[in-house]
Amino acid sequence: xxxxxxxxxxxxxxxxxxxxxxxxxxxxxxxxxxxxxxxxxxxxxxxxxxxxxxxxxxxxxxxxxxxxxxxxxxxxxxxxxxxxxxxxxxxxxxxxxxxxxxxxxxxxxxxxxxxxxxxxxxxxxxxxxxxxxxxxxxxxxxxxxxxxxxxxxxxxxxxxxxxxxxxxxxxxxxxxxxxxxxxxxxxxxxxxxxxxxxxxxxxxxxxxxxxxxxxxxxxxxxxxxxxxxxxxxxxxxxxxxxxxxxxxxxxxxxxxxxxxxxxxxxxxxxxxxxxxxxxxxxxxxxxxxxxxxxxxxxxxxxxxxxxxxxxxxxxxxxxxxxxxxxxxxxxxxxxxxxxxxxxxxxxxxxxxxxxxxxxxxxxxxxxxxxxxxxxxxxxxxxxxxxxxxxxxxxxxxxxxxxxxxxxxxxxxxxxxxxxxxxxxxxxxxxxxxxxxxxxxxxxxxxxxxxxxxxxxxxxxxxxxxxxxxxxxxxxxxxxxxxxxxxxxxxxxxxxxxxxxxxxxxxxxxxxxxxxxxxxxxxxxxxxxxxxxxxxxxxxxxxxxxxxxxxxxxxxxxxxxxxxxxxxxxxxxxxxxxxxxxxxxxxxxxxxxxxxxxxxxxxxxxxxxxxxx
Length: 612
Hints:
- The chain has 612 residues and is α+β, with helices and mostly antiparallel strands.
- It is built from 26 helices and 17 strands.
- The strands form three sheets. A six-stranded antiparallel β-sheet has the order 2-3-1-9-8-10, covered by helices on one side. It has a six-stranded antiparallel β-sheet with strand order 4-5-6-7-11-12.
- The two termini are 20 Å apart.
C-alpha cells in the first residue's frame, strides 16, 4: 500500500535512485510524492493526500508519516507535532502510538547522528518492510519498492510460498522477497551505528472485566464515535462500500450523522444474495442503492497483472475483484475518504477468533496447534488434494512445516492470557487479520482510505470486554439496535434476520446445501456450458472465469507456458489438468489463481516492473 520509504546509510542519494524507487510505488497519476535528502540518506512518502514530511522545532529531526492518526496538516505544517513525534518515538513509543490513535506508519531521521526510528501501529495496518545490507537500511511500504534499488537481489522466498500454500498467506514477519521482513504490529525499528534492531513496544493483555451491559454498550459506542470523528475530521466527502454484514452499516450510520456528502455502493454478480441484502440496507438507511455488477464489466488482463503486483506474491488473485470494482468507480474523486470496514470485529468490540469452550487453561500444546490449524483456511488446505498441484519435494516440505510453523509462532501469544481462547484470538489477529485481511485489501491503492474500526482506544476496550459480549457479535448488535435503529431493521446476510430479530433469539436462515451440490453437478454434467453462480458467494470466481473468455484465456496463456518460472514448486502437468477441468465446469479457480499470482510475481521480479 502507499506509505513511507527510506534509505539510510551507504552512498549519498541521487535523483536516479529516488526516481526509480518512487516510480515503483507511483501506481497512478493521482498519487502525490515527496522526498527529503541528507548526507545520511533520504526519506520520502507516496500516496493520496497532502505532504507528510516535516522537521521538528530544532530542525534536527525529519519526520515522515502515513496514516490516519494525525491530520495531514498537523504533520506537514506543524513543527510542534513533528517535535512531539521526534521526542517520543525514541523513548515513549507506546505513548506515541496511543497519541496517534489510529492506523499509521511513522519514521524519524536524526539529521546529525543518522539514527533512524520507524514504528508501526498496534494493528500493523500501514505496512513497513525493511532490509539491512551491510551498513545500509532499506525501508519501504511495499515490497516492489526494492526493485528500484539495483544493488538488491530480488530473489523469492519459497518459505513464503510454502505458507501461502498451507495457510493462504505468509505467517509472522515473512515476505515473498528473500531477506526482506515485515515490521510486526506494535513494533519499532531502530537503526543505529549501522545496525538494525526490532523491538515490540506493546503487547496485548486480555483482562476481561465484568460491568453492566448498558454501560459497556455506551462506552464502546463513545470510543468508536470519537475515533471516527478524529479520523474523518478533515474530509468533506465519504465513499462507503456496503455489504450485507454489520460493520459497513455501522460506518454508514455514523457517516450519516456528520451531514457530509456520501457515496454508497455495493457489488456482486447478478444472483448475489449479499448484494441484494446490501441494497436493502442502503434503502432502509435512505441512501442510493448503487450496485456494481461484477459479472458485466470487462476483466482486462492488465487488472490481473496489476493485482499480482499489488499482492506481491502473498495472496491469491481472487482479490483482483476489488481492483475491478475500484476501477469501475473511477468517476469518484480519489481524494474522497473511503471508509473501509475490513477490520471490523477483532480489536474493537464485537467479534473474536475463539469459541466459549476454548476459554480453558493448561491445554496441551499439540491440541492448541490442532485447533488453530482447524479454525481458518488451514484445515481445508492441509492435505493431499491441495498438495497434488505441487512437485513431490515441495509438497513434502509444506506437509512437514504445517504444524511446525504454527507451533513456532504460538509462544509469543501465550503470554496474553492463561486461557487458550485468548491466545488463539491473539494469534489470528497478528496473522489472519494483519497478514491476510490486510493483504487482500486492494482498496488502499485506489482511494484515500481510513479504517474507522481500528484505534488504540477500541483495542484497549476489546481486551477488557467480557467474552460473552464478543461471541455472536452481541455488543455490536446492541450498539446498532440502540444508537442506529434504522440500520438494525435491515436483514443481515449471514442469518437472513434483522438485528432486532437476532437479538430476540429468532432462528437464522440456513442455506440449503443441496442447492449448492445441484449447481455443481449441473455444471460438471454439461461440461461448463450451463454456468450457474452460487447466490451465497458474492465473488463467484468460478462463474466469472467461465463466463469471461478474456479471463480464461489469460489464465491459460500464462499457466500453459512451456517454461514456467514456478515449475520447481508446482507440477504444471497437474496445473494444465486443472485448466481443462475449470473450462468444463469444475470449481477450481481458487487454486489456479494462487498459482497464477505466484507465477506473475516471479515474472515481475525478474523484469522489475508490473506489466509483463
